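stuck on this one:
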Amino acid sequence: GADIEEASRRIEEGQHVLNEYSRQHNL
């Protein structure tokens, strides 16, 4: 269970980073 929570948390962080990156670069 812990591994799945860790993975989903990292996925959410990754999506947040991608959203910030896309906004800064107008993609």
